[in-house]
């Protein structure tokens, strides 16, 4: 303390010294928070585990025998070291969804993008530091459809000594929304790839791994979320479903939304939230109703007209501790059920997303170096001559496909994109992904059949370090329009505008929010509409950008950004770890 007394006395004599004092205190505070930063070690064993749901037991791929997998809790500034050992029969990788991975792209996880897979019997240790992020993220497998069951919450608390920008909740509960097949999900996607048809829809949705009371053989294990009168709880909601955006409501209660994708938001209240796969939403809920039992219910937002979807409802129970015991006198108190939006209620989705704002004014890039326009949508490939009719079971004897800017993304199979870039291996990818659609057309109108067949390719888009990027993401009505949750690895971005129809730069730029737009890692591109995002390319590496409906990434709705190194070590990709899985 004498040191600070001396500085303070000196600063009394010299007002110009006050700047130095502030600087010293700032350095001291940041050194203190760095000193508090911890290294967390975890072991993930990928293994087949018997899991019984909907009356049947499946040999389900899990982490450490848990479904969902373990919740990881860290503080902003901490480092995670996770050793993943693959004891399953499939190749696997783990992606830390939403983690910026500054200079540590080798730990990002998407198969054949930043690493080759961890083969059965092998292991790989993911090492990365959380920098400037707080809130709810999650981790999941990023290989084939393994993420159907291989996923868990990743919770980032504020740095030690800091607090939330909202009143401290009495309790925090992760709410993981999932999707369950009464089958092996790998078999489901393999069958679809073989036939060219759409994959079978799921048989249930889940909350924390449990389908809930409305499904067969499920009510004895329904997830219970306890609360008491007057308490405020923080629910960390994660949509871990494979292919379905979901609505979530709690009967007779309202949510206060305070964050999404590990960024804080200007709080707003709502009776319903909606999340695309990959998205997270932090909400406060208060026990302000008569003590009883209330259903928390999740159901599909299915925006594609006439496309089949799982039209079931998953439930958990918000149970007041002071509520009468359910089995007292042999009478069971049936929980109150919320009224849920219609499956195609796009108006409710739009009203919800329009409320998203950053808590204060933010620094959105205003001068743009890279102005990109990416169409996102489905397609149908004509049956190849060497295929038989069993392999072309899509509409009218075709095979389903998907693309961005008419390029259907093909993952490499011998090297990862990042290794090929880092080692200068030729022939793995090209850098000619188009900045604009090769052909302009009425994107959301009646599209000519000649535009339904995209070109397959492993094309990436190159960005200079520090470049300021704007991307217009435009849905198309090829085969069907649909809400596409588009996720960019290694980056958060500002969503500056959304709208319906075809994006019009003359009239729609006036709608841009350049003051307090929300910061996210996954944007729901509106069905038959568009979204505009902005970010600064300040993280070197190769970063996948894809639709988070896994059926669509399987079909090729993806591309990747190759962000070049900047100047000096701190703007360059780190060297690859020694235990990076061999290809």
From TrEMBL:
Please give the superkingdom of this protein's source: Eukaryota
- Name of the protein this chain belongs to: Laccase
Q: Tell me which species this is from.
A: Melia azedarach
């Amino acid at each position: 303390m004498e040191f600070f007394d001396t500085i303070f006395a000196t600063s009394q004599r010299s007002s110009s010294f006050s700047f130095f004092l502030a600087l010293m205190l700032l350095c001291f505070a940041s050194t203190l928070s760095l000193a508090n930063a911890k290294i967390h070690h975890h072991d993930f064993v990928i293994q087949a585990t018997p899991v019984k749901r909907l009356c049947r037991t499946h040999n389900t791929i899990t982490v450490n025998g848990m479904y969902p997998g373990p919740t990881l809790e860290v503080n902003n500034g901490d480092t995670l070291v996770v050793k993943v050992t693959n004891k399953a029969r499939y190749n696997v990788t783990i992606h830390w969804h939403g983690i910026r991975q500054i200079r540590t792209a080798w730990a990002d996880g998407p198969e054949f993008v930043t690493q080759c897979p961890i083969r059965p019997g092998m292991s790989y240790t993911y090492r990365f530091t959380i920098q400037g992020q707080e809130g709810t993220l999650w981790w999941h497998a990023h290989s084939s459809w393994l993420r159907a069951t291989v996923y868990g919450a990743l919770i980032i608390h504020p740095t030690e000594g800091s607090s939330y920008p909202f009143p401290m909740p009495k309790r925090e509960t992760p709410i993981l929304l999932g999707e369950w097949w009464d089958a092996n999900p790998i078999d489901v996607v393999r069958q679809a790839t073989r036939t060219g048809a759409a994959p079978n829809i799921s048989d249930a949705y889940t909350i924390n791994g449990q389908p809930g009371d409305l499904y067969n053989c499920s009510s004895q294990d329904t997830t219970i979320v306890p609360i008491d009168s007057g308490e405020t709880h923080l629910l960390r909601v994660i949509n871990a479903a494979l292919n379905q955006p979901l609505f979530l409501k709690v009967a007779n209660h309202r949510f206060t939304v305070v964050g999404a994708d590990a960024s804080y938001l200007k709080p707003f209240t709502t009776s319903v939230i909606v999340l695309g796969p990959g998205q997270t939403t932090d909400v406060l809920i208060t026990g302000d109703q008569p003590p009883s039992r209330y259903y928390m219910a999740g159901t599909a937002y299915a925006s594609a007209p006439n496309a089949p979807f799982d039209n079931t409802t998953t439930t958990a129970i918000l149970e007041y501790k002071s509520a009468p015991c359910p089995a007292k006198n042999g009478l069971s108190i049936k929980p109150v059920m919320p009224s849920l939006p219609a499956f195609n209620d796009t108006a409710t989705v739009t009203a919800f997303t329009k409320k998203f704002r950053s808590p204060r004014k933010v620094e959105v890039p205003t001068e743009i170096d890279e102005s990109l326009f990416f169409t996102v949508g489905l397609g149908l490939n004509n049956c190849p001559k060497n295929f038989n009719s069993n392999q072309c079971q899509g509409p009218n004897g075709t095979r389903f496909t998907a693309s961005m800017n008419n390029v259907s993304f093909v993952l490499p199979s011998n090297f990862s994109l990042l290794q090929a870039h880092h080692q200068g291996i030729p022939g793995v990818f090209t850098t000619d992904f188009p900045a604009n659609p090769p052909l302009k057309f009425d994107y959301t109108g009646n599209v000519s059949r000649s535009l339904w067949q995209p070109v397959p390719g492993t094309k990436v888009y190159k960005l200079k370090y520090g470049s300021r990027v704007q991307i217009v993401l435009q849905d198309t009505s090829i085969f069907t329009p649909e809400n596409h949750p588009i996720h960019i690895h290694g980056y958060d971005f500002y969503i500056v505008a959304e709208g319906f129809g075809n994006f019009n730069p003359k009239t729609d730029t006036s709608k841009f929010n350049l003051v307090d737009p929300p910061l996210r890692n996954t944007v729901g591109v509106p069905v038959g509409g568009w979204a505009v995002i902005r970010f600064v390319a300040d993280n070197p590496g190769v970063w996948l950008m894809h639709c988070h409906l896994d059926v669509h990434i399987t079909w090729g709705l993806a591309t990747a950004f190759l962000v070049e190194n900047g100047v000096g070590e701190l703007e360059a990709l780190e060297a690859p770890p020694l235990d990076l899985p061999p290809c």
